[in-house]
Amino acid sequence: MTQQSVATSDKLDAAVLKVAGVVVLGAIMSILDVTVVSVALPKFQSEFDASYARVAWTMTAYTLALATVIPLSGWAADRFGTKRLYMVALALFTIGSGLCATADTIGELIGYRVLQGLGGGMLMPLGMTIMTRAAGPHRIGRLMAVLGIPMLLGPIGGPILGGWLIDTASWHWIFLINLPIGVVALIYAQMALPKDAPEPSESFDFVGMLMLSPGLALFLYGVSSLPEAGTFAATKVWAPMLVGGALVVAFVLYSFKPRHPLLDLRLFRNRSLTIASVTLFVFIIAFMGAGLLFPSYFLQVRGETTLTAGLLMAPQGIGALLTMPIAGVLADRVPIGRTVPFALALIVVGFFSFTQVDPQTSYLLIEGSLFVMGLGMGGTMMPIMTSALRTLSANDVARGSTLVNILQQIGGSVGAAVMSVILTNELNGSRPIPGLVDESGKPITEAGLAIASQQRPELLQQMPVDPSLIERGLDFAAKSFATTFWVAFALVVLTLVPAALLPRRRQPAQLDDVQGEQVKTPVVIH
Q: Any idea which GO molecular function terms this record carries (predicted)?
């Protein structure tokens, strides 16, 4: 075959692009839904009269559901066929979105988010499998460029779209917008995707799934109940934490026994995988947990509209958009031990400004800090994941990718729960206003009234108070955010320790030596 014909064969033809269109539609829904909801958390607080730790479960439950179905999707795709399962995932996500818009309580919304996450968690790994089968492994780089569009634009467009929908319509529309897209995607998938060819599949570790997912959910539920209970001695705190912790420990001990465990922890014998996974896990807890709080600071302390808060988050996404392609190229040429620590250092520098926030902090400083953090983020996550998988054998790549991506989702869940608990606990320390109680009879605090008045100025006419009290409440709220950011900042700094152990010399990639061997498609998740 001539060089010219090889180049031509590498191009994505119309049939492949048609399949890619289905996958991109699914990716857009799944990725946008993570970032869109980030600006809606304060709205959920006021709408459902719930604490920040409680409404953060709309994110925690979603990411835990994602983590649950990542390993299930590969087994189910073999067992039932990729087209059929992809359409089921689209339907679950679309139905879950519609139900979310009908929620009357925060509990209902959290439950519907789980359903949405079960569908959304299968869309990306199944989409990668479908695209790889359609185009062949030799064109995976071009396919990733196509799929990378929603992955790069999601962090920028999501908060802006969410803010615009909430301000111009209502919070319901951040979910309702998925309905027409989902219907179009289902029709498109039925027409464009090739027929299913189910094949024998490996056994699935249902026992492991029944230990890990409920264990994490129970443990994090106990943690998130702490601000309301006020003490670890409360049954609703220690009981779920104890049962959840026991289930997670039992899962770890059990996972070394099955031939095909839910998570193959034996892969941690690989030093490169272990170091990269620890680095990624700690980083995700800090960065994703604190990232949920950035829009809340703009809304609750600075009194911005939801759309403005979304726009103010854009510099972070723009920074990541600039460095992610560069980091992808460097990951193949330069050992990540020489690049990732510098990217993390950028995040540390940018993050420090948020530990100093007050009600009058310069927006120029904040936006510059978000941009610098975005530059660092773009050079951190994908190179670390590449390093984690690079030295694995061909047969271990799919399991290693599943392991790393589940750790990423669990880290996001832990970060959302822990950071929201810290913020709620700090805000609960605000002084109550004598004689003022809410509808449930609980005292209204200075910080609580100040935050509420930022979004609903008419409250100050219904509850006339000294303006200095509102000023004091905003100062307290800002300090609560700053304290939470200090915890996240310390965790990001801690990430530099395992990052210093990342390989500083070029590693031989075992996959580069595989010739003609069919390798299972690795899971790629956002």
A: transmembrane transporter activity
